Each structure stands twice: as structure tokens, then as C-alpha cells.
What does this fold into?
Amino acid sequence: MSLTRYDIIDQKLFINNRKKLVEKLKPNSIVVIHSNDVMPTSADGTMPFIQQTDLFYLTGIDQEETILVLYPDAREGDFKEILFVRKTSEDIAIWEGEKFTKDQATLFSGIEHVEWTDQFEFVFNRLIFDAEFVYLATNEHLRNSSNAETKNDRFLKWCTESYPLHKYERLAPIMHKIRAIKSPEELELIRRACTITERAFKRVLSFVKPGVWEYEIEAEIYHEFISNKSRRMAYSPIIASGSSSCVLHYITNNKQCKDGDLLLLDFGAEYANYASDLSRTIPVNGRFSSRQKEVYNAVLNVQKMAIDILRPGVLLKEFQSKVGKLVEEELIKLGLLNSKEVKSQDPKNPLYKKYFMHGTSHYLGLDVHDYGDMNAIIEEGMVFTCEPGIYIREEGVGIRIENNILIGSSENIDFMNNTPREVEEIEEFMNR
It folds into this structure.
């Protein structure tokens, strides 16, 4: 079956995910979630399709023009779960290839009742008048800055105008809660994405040398990803040499790597829509200078201690504050901060932020900055990045080290534990 590049995922994952959601709904509620649009470029061009992650989490369907309707209290049993998929045809098969049949949609999702998308309004109108609450999907992510109107946005307008007297609920708070704790099946998919990323990094270590271009390194990463069933980067990759290593979101990747420079790499493979997120900093010529090594080991020390702090029961905000103190101590040792000035600093604007200005951790899952409450207490089963950094713009030295961490009961599990991280490991790989 050629509907996915990645291996078929057992439908039990999506059946269990729907059960988690249904348990948190108010009585007599309908949930409606639409797939993402196929986004245009210009003329007749389109961007590669990426599925709306709530829909994928609940169905496993990786195809445009898909709609999920859940109505757990429906009077007719086969209307409790309905999946709508794009109606295929001979012309579509000729021009675009294979699309989901109804039977295939059931095989992937575990949903028995499958209709074509063009039947949605007829079926929805049949159900809505029996329901009291309607849960609608909105993108309630702190980092969301997109002005693009999604299918879920358009449906929200249509639904509230067409059925104004129903009671409407936000789906997002429930999804943020249930998606934050990863199931064993999800953890295996994240682990696989991390393994692909590890292979790409090791490939880069054997490729980088003075004179190569940042985009050539990017091409090596893509080659390894695609060769291992990853369809894409989980996010725009950062391949930042020299002073660009101090630019947090540098993605132009168009400079030549020079002898003596550092190269900051921040990239991650996607596998079956699940993300990985790696950062490493390496010397272009294969050997850290004494100063580069000094700063690198300072960041590495902070990361190791931070991973130990990132444990169940800890508030994420408290965790960030503790990591800031660790960075502060290292900056004093590096001669970048003065201990007397630190003692008299404004606690609301600590001096370390000149050199470490971003957060240490974010949730990881179907989205690289995955769903989850940043004011929450850390729980077993969550997956976070851990990515401290020190950026010394006046020296052109930017260093970030990032691993992906599963919060375990007795100890954390580092999904990137086998990805070279120590100075000696990196230099040994680069000089083989």
C-alpha cells in the first residue's frame, strides 16, 4: 500500500487517542476537525501538504479534504464517529495517484463509518439539531503568528452563523492536555525521528571542512532524511557558520564555512508527522580552539545539569529560572559577567540574558513546538527539548546544544544519547 512513505501505524493509537478526547467532552457534544488546506504558491503551484496535527492525532489520515466528526452521544451508533475523505475518481488517479478508499480510511483510522467529503453538510445537518455543545478547533498556540485563514477557521464562521443558538466550546485546551502526555506508540515514532536525525548529524560530521557551503551541508541532511523515510525537515533548518551562529533563527544558509569558525546546526527529521529537534555546534576545521572548547563545555555542563532538573513535579517556569542561574555561573567563569554586578542586578532583567536570551525547553511531538501548557508542572510521559546556549556576538561565537528528553518515572530518557555531543567525540568523528 503506497499511501504513506512511512510505515503504517497501528490504528489502535488513533482509537485510543479518540477515547482520551471523548472522556473530556461535555455530554451531548459534537467535535468537528478539518484537515489543513493545500497551500498555494503562485500560478498553479502548491506547497507540499502537511496535515493538521489534531486531525492526524485522532485519525492517522494524512490526506487533504478530510473531516472528522465525533458525536459520542449520537442516538444511532454508527454516527458516533464519522470520517469524511476526499472522493476519488479515475481522473484523480491518473493525475495525482492513489487516494484513500473508504476501506483504507477505516484500516488506518479504526473508524467504521466513512463518507465522502461532499456528504459532510448533509450528514452534519442531520446530527447538529440533536446536539447541545459543539467543539471547534482553533490554533491556540502561544507562538502562532500566522494570518492565514484555515479550513477550521472558515468552518467556525460558517457553523456559528448557521447554528447560532448552539453552545460552542474550545477544543484546543483539551488537545493541549491530552497531547502533552505521549503514548508508547508515539514515543517510538519520536524515537525513530531522532534516530534519523542522529544519522544525518554523523553524516555532516564526516562532510564538513573549510570551504564547504552551508547549503551543501543542508543538502547532506536532506539526503539522509529522505533515504530513511522522512518526508521533510520538521522545521526550517539552521546551518549557521561564523558570526551567523549568534543569530537565533538564521535560515538563509548561504555562506561559505571558513577555517577557524564554529558551525551551529539546528535541524530535525520528521517521521510520520512526529518531530525531532537537534542542535549541535562543531568546529569547521575539525578542532575546537581553546576558547571555543571552553565556551562549548560551559554550555554542555549547563545542559547536563538542566536535564537532571527537568523532572516530574517541577514547574516549567521554575526550571527556566534554575537554568538561568546555571548559565549565569558559567558566564562568570568565562569572564563575560562580573560577580559583583550580578549580585546587584535587576532580578527582572538578569545580566545573563545578554548571552542566553531564549528558553531552555519546549514540548515536542507532532509539532516541533508541540502542544502543552508552559505554566504546567512537568509530568512523566512528556517529551521536551533541552537546549541551553551561549552567544557571544563580540567574539562571533554562538553555541547551542539540544537533545530530546522523555520524562521518565525514575530517570529521564535521552532520545539523542547516541548523537555525538562531547568535544572529543565530535573531533574524533570529524578527523577519521
About this structure: The chain has a mean pLDDT of 95. The longest strand covers residues 29-34. The domain at 184-430 is CATH 3.90.230.10 (Creatine Amidinohydrolase). Residues 184-207 form the longest helix (24 residues).
